[in-house]
Write a structure and sequence with these properties.
Elements (H helix, E strand, L loop, with lengths): L1 H16 L7 H4 L2 H12 L3 H9 L9 H19 L5 H11 L3 E3 L6 H14 L4 E5 L2 H17 L4 E3 L6 H9 L2 E5 H11 L15 E5 L1 H7 L5 E9 L4 H8 L7 E3 L6 E3 L1 H10 L11 H16 L6 E4 L2 E6 L4 E2 L3 E2 L4 H8 L6 E9 L1 H6 L3 E6 L6 H8 L3 E3 L9 E2 L3 E3 L2 H16 L5 E4 L3 H13 L5 E3 L7 H6 L7 E4 L19 H7 L2 E5 L6 H8 L9 E8 L3 H6 L15 E2 L2 H48 L2 H9 L1 H10 L2 H33 L10 H14 L1 H15 L2 E2 L2 E2 L12 E5 L8 H17 L1
Helix pairs in contact: 3-5, 5-8, 6-7, 7-8, 12-14, 14-15, 24-27, 24-28, 25-26, 25-27, 27-28, 27-29
InterPro entries: Helicase_ATP-bd, Helicase_C-like, P-loop_NTPase, SecA, SecA_Actinobact-type, SecA_CS, SecA_DEAD, SecA_motor_DEAD
GO cellular component, one term: plasma membrane
Family: Belongs to the SecA family.
């Protein structure tokens, strides 16, 4: 009876404390069996351990017996290779991942090891595994770190990063387990969709994805599609327009909406611009081109902020990934906007490009028959993970109880009063010798705070997108005696902050002082991000504390809940507010922000489902053209005389490749044109709500007939190209016939819209149109 009561109590506790979490009792019951095997596997030589792991490859099924065997062998492999005996909770995480769940494990609980053992388990079942990370550094670090464990288990491992050649990438993907950043794996997927020869492919068909920092990848990144572009020619930035827009003032010459996603000229602004550009009529037929240039320049000027949205480094504009706080390597905005930002910063314009293909993170993960993941903050987005990915969350208990002290928010009337209080808090804690980690909202804030601390003799180390290459080294020392680390949202996810520093030399001293103290300079737009920052302290049962400072005039409140209730009073001297109504307002603002993000995710998903379906259908056709003689057969049938002429001049193999390249070129070009067409449709589709039409339905009615024209058009254009090709001494000159591939490719960072609900977007479009008419 006591055992029954205990089990019922445990289940009730899970139901109350961890909504949307899966039942772990089945896996917990296997831990004792794993422990029973421990003494037996300890006696094995390295070769015997590898051989025994290899026997799992011969099993017809992977049930509880095989799971127990894997965990026992994996624990022993980790002990030998890394001198780390896996905790029971790590093995629970491994089991949850092998069951296809998102496992929630707190910071410092050993997610990397749990993921590695799960990846080995999938590999020993004969499945190819990609361990998907949030950045290239973590992908390489984890692959190299876990390599000795994989080696003992007889599993091959590799990783991909931007510096690798095509051959090196192919070798990395040939391993049973491949680590890579989500962007790197996604862009390799897009590059493979542009090849014209089978031997140019680098990725085999994917089978299993294990996603590290799963909430960041699957939720935060969901609306940021990976976009591949190819060079066309040098971009032309309208420098004259940039100089005019630079002189405009907010409120007088232009206005922006509360969420900072749209900007438009006022009547006064339009008049100033028209006069400065020679007396043109921006809203007349003759001014359409200049109006487009003005709008994109205004977007760059009013909505994109240096050191928040981008950096200028090494004479180039480098974008900052908003959800990670890191520089988005090799990424840029869509053309026009990129050139406008470069003109704003008085930098030379880079090449212009055309979008070749794109893929959302959600679509990328949909390619894998099996998906699992791990993170420290999954329960908060459990419903989204279920809705968009059909994934359930398994909450893994900590190895040691969390004793971190999460202090109540300290709220102030104004940002300046809040900043003074933060400085005072840092000084007070620093004087005790306790290490401090300060989490800021962006690069600009982190550097501003660092300057203010330096002026009052409080030196700190800054971690932001400017020095992300030193991220691991900086964050590893954030737990040393007297350390003050000011970080953006990147905050070193994936790297533990060990008390006493990387070598733990002052661990006992720091522990006695109370451990790492975390300070948030404002609440984030998501409670998960708050939790991630707090989670940097209190790892593995360490002492620690965390506190957030907030203001009723923070961007979070002003953008999402600006109507603050009356009667909230602040202390006359410090500006601090103790009224619980202020706390409720900030919590409400955060919930609104989370709701907006969810609506964005839903809208992105609704609009991209059809596009992904069309992409899959066209990719099947492309793959058939790539791997078979279909192109030659179709063109011979449609252009027999010309095909016969070419057959006399070329070998059969060469002619087949010529036909293949022609048809693939037109397929890729038409798909690129189709994507551009759909983008135009989506930018205007919301206005159809005015006619009581459903924008999504109208999008489908427009997109489907347009797609059905692509395949016939491919053949028609290919026949025309074949007729026009010239035979030279070297064979066929396809470039002279217009079949030219981009000389270089790069990636775009864009936000896959519709940013708001259909109704809200419609109102914004109408408001913009009315303002133009008034002008």
């Amino acid at each position: 009876m006591p055992a029954l009561i205990s089990r019922v109590g445990k289940r009730l506790r899970r139901l109350i404390e961890r909504p949307a979490s899966v039942e772990l009792t089945r896996y917990e019951a296997l831990l004792s069996a794993v422990e029973e095997l421990e003494a037996e596997v300890e006696k094995l030589t390295d070769a015997e351990l590898t051989e025994r792991a290899g026997k799992l490859r011969l099993e017809d099924e992977f049930g509880e017996a095989q799971l127990t065997e894997l965990c026992a062998l994996g624990r022993e492999a980790a002990r030998r290779a890394l001198d780390e005996r896996s905790f029971d909770v790590q093995l629970l995480g491994t089991m949850g991942l092998l069951a296809g769940h998102i496992v929630q494990m707190e910071t410092g609980e050993g997610k990397t090891m749990a993921g590695a053992l799960a990846a080995a388990g999938y590999a020993l079942q004969g499945k190819r595994v990609h361990v998907i990370s949030v950045n290239d550094y973590l992908a390489r670090r984890d692959a190299e770190w876990m390599a000795p464990v994989y080696r003992l288990l007889g599993v091959s491992v590799g990783w991909v990063e931007p510096s690798l050649t095509r051959d090196e990438r192919r070798e990395a993907y040939a391993a049973e387990v491949t680590y890579g950043a989500v962007s790197e794996i996604g862009f390799d997927t897009l590059r493979d969709r542009l090849v014209t020869r089978v031997d140019e492919l680098v990725q085999p068909e994917p089978e299993v994805a294990i996603v590290d920092e799963a909430d960041s990848v699957l939720v935060d990144e969901a609306r940021v599609p990976l976009v591949m572009a190819g060079s066309v020619d040098a971009a032309v930035a309208d420098v004259e327009v940039a100089n005019v827009v630079r002189r405009l003032r907010p409120g007088l010459h232009y206005e922006t909406d509360s969420d900072g996603r749209n900007a438009w000229l006022t009547t006064a602004g339009a008049s100033v611009v028209e006069k400065a550009l020679g007396g043109i009529d921006l809203y007349g037929d003759s001014g359409a081109d200049r109006l487009a240039a003005v709008n994109v320049a205004l977007h760059a000027h009013a909505l994109l902020t240096r050191d928040v949205d981008y950096l200028v480094r090494d004479g180039k504009v480098q974008l900052i990934n908003a959800s990670r706080g890191r520089v988005a390597e090799l990424q840029r905005w869509p053309d026009g906007l990129q050139a406008a930002v470069e003109a704003k910063e008085q930098l030379p314009a880079t090449d212009r490009g055309e979008i070749l293909d794109s893929i959302t993170v959600q679509a990328l993960l949909a390619r894998y028959p099996q998906v699992a993941g791990m993170t420290g903050t999954a329960v908060a987005v459990a419903e989204q993970l279920r809705e968009f990915y059909r994934l359930e969350v398994a909450v893994i208990p900590p190895n040691k109880p969390n004793v971190r002290e999460d202090q109540p928010d300290r709220i102030f009337a104004s940002p300046s009063q809040k900043l003074r209080a933060i400085q005072a808090e840092i000084r007070e804690v620093h004087e005790t010798g306790r290490p401090i980690l300060v989490g800021t909202q962006d690069v600009a804030e982190s550097e501003e705070l660092a300057e203010k601390l330096a002026k009052v003799d409080l030196p700190c180390v800054v971690l932001n997108a400017r020095n992300d290459a030193e991220e691991a080294a900086i964050i590893a020392e954030a737990g040393t005696y007297g350390a003050v680390t000011v970080s953006t949202q990147m905050a070193g996810r994936g790297t533990d902050i060990r008390l006493g520093g990387a070598d733990g030399r002052d661990r006992e001293r720091i522990t006695e002082l109370g451990g790492l103290h975390v300070i948030g300079t404002a609440r984030y737009p998501s409670s998960r991000l708050d939790g991630q920052l707090r989670g940097r302290s209190g790892r593995q049962g360490d002492p620690g504390s965390a506190v957030f400072f907030a203001s009723l005039n923070d961007d979070l409140v002003l953008s999402n809940a600006p109507d603050v209730p009356e009667g909230i009073e602040a202390d006359d001297e410090t500006g601090e507010i103790t009224d619980q109504a202020a706390q409720r307002q900030i919590n409400h603002a955060q919930r609104v922000a989370e709701g907006v993000h969810l609506e964005i995710h839903r809208n992105t998903w609704r609009y991209t489902r059809l596009i992904e379906h069309q992409r899959r259908d066209l990719l099947k056709h492309r793959d058939e053209l790539l791997r078979t003689k279909l192109a030659a057969e179709q063109l011979e049938k449609a252009a027999p005389e010309r095909y016969a002429e070419l057959a006399e001049a070329l070998t059969e193999e060469k002619l087949e490749q010529v036909c293949r390249e022609i048809m693939l070129y037109h397929l890729d070009q038409l798909w690129s044109d189709h994507l551009a067409f759909l983008t135009d449709v989506r930018e205007s589709i919301h206005l159809r709500a005015l006619a009581r039409e459903t924008p999504l339905d109208e999008f489908h009615r427009t997109a489907i007939p347009a797609f059905h024209k692509i395949v016939p058009e491919i053949e028609e254009r290919s026949v025309k190209t074949l007729q026009e090709t010239e035979i030279t001494a070297d064979g066929i000159d396809l470039a002279a016939s217009g079949v030219r591939r981009p000389t270089s490719t790069w990636t775009y960072l864009v936000h896959d819209n519709p940013f708001d609900s259909d109704f809200e977007q419609t109102l914004k479009q109408v408001r913009s149109l009315l303002k133009r008419k008034k002008s």
